[in-house]
Amino acid sequence: MISAACNAQTGEKTKNKIEFLVKGKDGIPIHAARGVSLTFSNPNKGASFSFASPGENKKKEKKYFLTIDFEKMSPEILKLMKDYDSDFSGELRVIGNADNLLSQHIEFSGASLDNVAYQCTLDETSMFLYLWCSKISVNGVELN
């Protein structure tokens, strides 16, 4: 016996809205992002280990890596990153388009710029911002 179920639904795509906020001396500007990726690793191994001095407190280690994708190379974002000689804090908010509710909330601190990459194809452009962070929480849960 073969069974099939079909539902009549609209073909509308629901897109999330992603906001990148950096806490700075001039308030908290909001920048629209296209994507975000969070990676975290064992602080005793890998790239995060190389950030720590032998006697340094492990809580200061940079063990969280954020990648943020923007639609274009925004001068505002580049200036924002250029102005920080020291670590900074911020947050990322993912808001569902269908219900306008916050679905993911990522707060970070001790962030420093790793690099910026710009990509352009015939169809689209992207600017990727890579940040190392020493502290991060996702939806209120602090990752240790």
Can you put this structure into words, describing what you see?
This protein has 144 residues and is mainly beta. The protein has a single domain, classed as Roll (Pnp Oxidase, Chain A), CATH 2.30.110. 10% of the residues lie in helices and 47% in strands. It has two helices and nine strands, in the order βββαβαβββββ. Strands 1, 2, 3, 4, 5, 6, 7, 8 and 9 form a nine-stranded antiparallel sheet that branches. The N terminus is likely disordered.
Beta-strand proportion: over 45%
Q: How would you describe the shape?
A: globular
What is the count of DSSP helices, taking H or I runs of 4+ residues? Answer: 2
Largest sheet: 9 strands, antiparallel
Mean pLDDT: 78
β-strand number: 9
Radius of gyration: 19 Å
Tell me the layout of helices and strands.
Blueprint: E1 17-23, E2 30-33, E3 35-40, H1 46-51, E4 64-70, H2 75-82, E5 88-95, E6 102-120, E7 125-133, E8 135-138, E9 141-143
Antiparallel strand pairs: 1-2, 1-5, 3-4, 4-7, 5-6, 6-7, 6-8, 8-9
